Amino acid sequence: MTDAASRSGAIDAAELRRRTQELLAAHPVADTDRVDFLKARFDAGLAWVHYPQGLGGLGAPRSLQAVVDAELEAAGAPDNDPRRIGIGLGMAAPTILGFGTEEQKSRFLRPLWVGEEVWCQLFSEPGAGSDLAALGTRAVRDGDDWVVNGQKVWTSSAHLARWAILIARTDPEAPKHRGITYFICDMTDPGVEVRPLRQITGEAEFNEVFLTDVRIPDAHRLGEVGDGWRVAQTTLMNERVSIGGMRIPREGGMIGPVSKTWRERPDLRTHDLHQRLLTLWAEAEVARLTGERLRQQLVAGQPGPEGSGMKLAFARLNQEISGLEVELLGEEGLLYEDWTMRRPELVDFTGRDAGYRYLRSKGNSIEGGTSEVLLNIVAERVLGLPSEPRTDKDVAWKDLAR
Question: Residues with catalytic annotation?
Answer without folding.
Answer: 239
